């Protein structure tokens, strides 16, 4: 039969709105590639996911009864979260996507499951299911043995290398013993059980994972198993600095994190008696991004390193190898998988990486808490790239001001954003809050209510006509009230270290685009700055005396 809509081998363009008749033609019945579910019985959804993963993929249609009639289902975040949980109950499922399909006035959720390219999926109780017609059948006996032997996955990190355990650095072996609390006896057995040597003998070769942790320079055995960092001072120019971190895997993560943090520096803001150092990227975010790159890269790609680029407006971390199944860009916050399970396990034991499933959460949450732009994740199937923006719509003085305010009590990230806009002189309403936060009326009302209850904003009017402004007791951020001479001095100071743009001035001063342009034009006319380029490519340098 032909592959159905939403199947990875089905039609390239799948319509998201169908009539009942069109839906019936597209999905006439259950079969090799289609299963209907009226609700979300999580165990049954998990069985279908496992079976489709082990066969040729398929589509689970939720909100459809056994006869193929659309009954409808919710498409809200909690409903989708239940589906992600059902998939997470399967061990090593294939990649998947979740689509919202509208049929007449009802929603159907299409869970499109891809065939696993390597290895196989299992239920949490150990069953191995495969799709046969409209049934999810368990494999047994000889049939099971044949299937497993044909699909067995050997992780590359467990591959022995041409270097014996005798070449391991004794200090690095001791470090592992101390990390895991092993006793002084049975070290070889422990290393073997941990996947670091191929056999529990003194003549055993190291595995790839063993080379990464037990050799002073793993690249001598594994090729480009290191991190390269390139610094670019100006857009369009060649890099002006390159440094390589090629020690054991854990040292690569720690040393590269420290180096990049020093390169980026911090925004220094002094408010009254307090000096605030605001890292341009929170250290946990950078460390997690590097740990993920080291742990999940493909070490089979021996001619490629992990490449880090430091630009004026971003840090990019690019590692060889695509995302491991079942992770995709769309579901990476809900799903997790390890290409190199031993490598990441040791990084976690050394507290250099977050627990399973927490890495992306930590990166996104830490950036949000610091009022910085969110990380951007991308993949071309052969590499994974993480972009950490060096910017925010909230200026450093505003971020420092928020830190001062939070001495009175913690403020949620969404509430902070509303408070910043109130400090800029904006009059907040439920509509304004919804637009700023991208939430519904109930959540907007709750945010405004929390700020009011904490005494940070004051309410004017009642119910539908209520507006909110910054409480009189709170002074606005100093960056918004700097005298013109102070603003000029601040911008000249920025230009002394590197070329500046309208955007970089806005980020450091809190000015809007027009005000920043007026200030830059004024300094240019006064002979203090020199303008280069035009339109979006315009930048400014300090005038030579």
Automatic annotation (TrEMBL):
Domain of life: Bacteria
Gene3D superfamilies, per database record: 3.30.565.60, Schlafen, AAA domain, Winged helix-like DNA-binding domain superfamily/Winged helix DNA-binding domain
Domain spans labelled Schlafen AlbA-2: 30-138
One Pfam family hit: SLFN_AlbA_2
Name of the protein: Putative transcriptional regulator
Species in which this protein is naturally found: Nakamurella multipartita (strain ATCC 700099 / DSM 44233 / CIP 104796 / JCM 9543 / NBRC 105858 / Y-104) (Microsphaera multipartita)
Upper classification of the organism: Bacteria, Bacillati, Actinomycetota, Actinomycetes, Nakamurellales
């Amino acid at each position: 039969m032909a592959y159905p809509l939403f199947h990875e081998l089905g039609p390239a363009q799948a319509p998201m709105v169908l009539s009942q008749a069109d839906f019936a033609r597209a999905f006439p019945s259950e079969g090799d590639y289609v299963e209907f579910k009226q609700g979300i019985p999580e165990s049954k959804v998990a069985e279908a996911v496992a079976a489709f993963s082990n066969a040729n993929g398929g589509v689970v249609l939720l909100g459809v009864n056994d006869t193929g009639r659309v009954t409808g289902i919710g498409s809200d975040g909690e409903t989708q979260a239940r589906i992600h949980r059902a998939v997470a109950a399967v061990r090593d499922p294939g990649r998947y996507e979740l689509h919202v399909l509208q049929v007449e006035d009802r929603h159907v959720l299409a869970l499109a499951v891809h065939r696993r390219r390597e290895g196989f999926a299992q239920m949490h109780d150990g069953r191995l299911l495969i799709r046969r017609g409209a049934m999810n059948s368990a494999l047994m006996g000889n049939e099971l043995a044949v299937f497993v032997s044909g699909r067995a996955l050997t992780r590359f990190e467990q591959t022995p290398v041409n270097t014996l355990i005798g070449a391991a650095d004794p200090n690095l072996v001791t470090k592992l013993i101390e990390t895991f609390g092993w006793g002084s006896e049975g070290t070889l057995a422990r290393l073997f059980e941990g996947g670091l040597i191929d056999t529990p003998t003194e003549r055993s070769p190291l595995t790839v994972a063993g080379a990464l942790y037990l050799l002073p320079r793993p690249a001598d055995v594994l090729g480009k198993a290191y991190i390269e960092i390139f610094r670019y001072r100006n857009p369009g120019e060649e890099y002006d600095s390159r440094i390589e971190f090629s020690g054991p895997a854990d040292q690569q993560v720690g040393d590269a994190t420290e180096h990049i943090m020093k390169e980026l520096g911090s925004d220094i803001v002094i408010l009254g008696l307090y000096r605030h150092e605001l890292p341009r990227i929170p250290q946990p975010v950078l460390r997690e991004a590097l740990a993920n790159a080291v742990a999940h890269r493909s070490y089979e790609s021996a001619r490629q390193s992990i490449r880090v680029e430091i630009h004026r407006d971003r840090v990019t971390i690019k590692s060889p190898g695509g995302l491991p199944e079942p992770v995709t860009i769309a579901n990476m916050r809900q799903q997790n998988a390890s290409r190199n399970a031993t490598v990441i396990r040791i990084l976690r034991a050394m507290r250099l990486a977050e627990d399973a499933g927490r890495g992306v959460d930590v990166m996104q949450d830490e950036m949000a808490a610091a009022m910085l732009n969110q990380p951007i994740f991308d993949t071309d199937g052969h590499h994974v790239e993480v972009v950490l923006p060096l910017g925010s719509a909230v200026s450093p003085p505003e971020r420092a001001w928020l830190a001062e305010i939070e001495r009175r009590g913690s403020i949620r990230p969404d509430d902070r954003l509303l408070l910043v806009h109130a400090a800029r002189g904006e009059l907040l309403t439920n509509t304004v809050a919804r637009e700023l936060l991208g939430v519904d009326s109930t959540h907007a009302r709750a945010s405004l209510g929390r700020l009011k209850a904490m005494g940070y904003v004051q309410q004017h009017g009642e119910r539908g006509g209520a507006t909110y402004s910054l409480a009189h007791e709170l002074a606005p951020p100093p960056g918004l009230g700097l005298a013109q001479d102070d603003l000029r001095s601040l911008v000249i100071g920025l230009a002394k270290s590197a070329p500046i743009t309208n955007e970089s001035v806005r980020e450091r001063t809190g000015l809007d685009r027009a005000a920043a342009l007026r200030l830059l034009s004024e300094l240019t006319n006064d002979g203090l700055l020199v303008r280069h380029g035009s339109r979006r490519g315009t930048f400014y340098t300090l005038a030579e005396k």
